[in-house]
Write a structure and sequence with these properties.
alpha/beta; 2 domains; 7-stranded mixed β-sheet; 37% helix; globular
């Protein structure tokens, strides 16, 4: 099949490499706002360069991958849907959940997949299966962790919407996905300790949130921009019959000081693309299957809107130092 890719920055270039290696993708068409970048990536991966997004959408592609800056996401999703093309878009759908909900209203029934890659990581998939099977018994506690080794660039942070919208949304999404439950209330806190930019932006450099799910399971989410040992992504699920964990492997960025313990033995993960290389490949493979019509979207706009409301509730909770119910922040028609 012929797949188009719009946006060739860090994640877009990575997607170009992944897509060019998928058996289902016989032709790759690429474009970026910087023509020299378009030409460089096209040469590197044997892709067809085109001048802009409009040219790509009308170049005979079977599906479109959007990896541009966030502000372009709504327009490009809607443009792809308008011409009848299945579209994969990196998160978020838009700057905030209200804007994302507006995109959702215009895309009813359309084939749109949003990029939450943890849904495709083998360990997270296994954790979901364990919950669904009932082997953990009654789930009572979930702990989800995303600790980055260093902050993103200042320009990125300024446009990110804050740590809950940019970083913790991955935790929120995977908690919903693995447990099959919805979040009804949050309580969040955070610290701006680190670069002065976090204080200037009214953002947190380190944050934590307690989520109450609709069956009274409690989920604890922990995030930071300053995890010196590496990129630490984990999920713990504790039930009345058993407990399991994602991320307890030899590249775990955590050092044990127990006498005689040598785990973990390998070099720590330092980058999300390293940690989730397999997941990204499986995610885009799923998109090609959606383009082929053999599966439905594995992560819908509605899923992305929901985690956006969770992030919005956490941001409000951090600002006002109080619990916030999801029904208090959703648009009235979606409450």
């Amino acid at each position: 099949m012929r797949i188009g890719l719009i946006g060739l920055g860090r994640i877009g270039a990575f997607h170009a490499e992944t897509l060019s290696g998928l058996p289902a993708v016989t032709e790759l068409v690429v474009t970026d706002a910087v023509p020299a970048v378009t030409e460089r990536i096209a040469r590197k991966y044997g892709a067809e360069p085109v001048a802009d997004a409009d040219a790509l959408l009308h170049s005979g592609v079977d599906g479109v991958v959007v990896a541009t800056a966030t502000d372009a996401h709504p327009q490009l999703i809607l443009a792809a849907v308008e011409v009848g093309l299945p579209v994969f878009c990196e998160k978020p759908v838009a700057r905030g959940p209200a804007a994302a909900a507006e995109v959702l209203r215009h895309c009813a029934g359309a084939a749109v997949q949003i990029g939450y890659n943890r849904r495709f990581d083998p360990a997270f998939v296994a954790a979901r299966a364990a919950v669904a099977s009932g082997e953990l018994g009654r789930l009572h506690t979930v702990r989800s962790t995303t600790l980055d080794p260093a902050p993103p660039p200042a320009a990125y942070l300024a446009a990110s919407g804050g740590i809950f919208h940019d970083c913790a949304v991955h935790d929120f999404d995977i908690i919903r996905y693995v447990t099959g439950r919805e979040v009804v209330e949050v309580y969040a806190t955070g610290s701006a300790r680190g670069d002065d930019l976090f204080t200037e932006l009214g953002d947190a450099a380190t944050a934590a949130a307690i989520l109450t799910l609709d069956d009274d399971t409690l989920a604890v989410v922990s995030n930071t921009r300053y995890n010196g040992r590496g990129h630490d992504v984990r999920l713990e699920l504790h039930g009345s019959a058993d407990s399991i964990a994602v991320g307890l492997e030899d590249k775990l960025p955590l050092r044990s000081v127990e006498p005689g313990v040598t785990f973990p033995a390998g070099p720590p993960h330092t980058f999300f693309m390293d940690r989730f290389a397999v997941a990204y490949r499986r995610e885009l493979t799923a998109f090609t299957e959606m383009v082929a019509g053999t599966r439905e979207s594995p992560c819908t706009i509605a899923d992305a809107v929901e985690v956006g409301w969770i992030a919005e509730a956490c941001t409000l909770s951090l600002r006002e130092h109080r619990p916030v119910r999801l029904s208090d922040v959703r648009l009235p028609e979606l409450a």
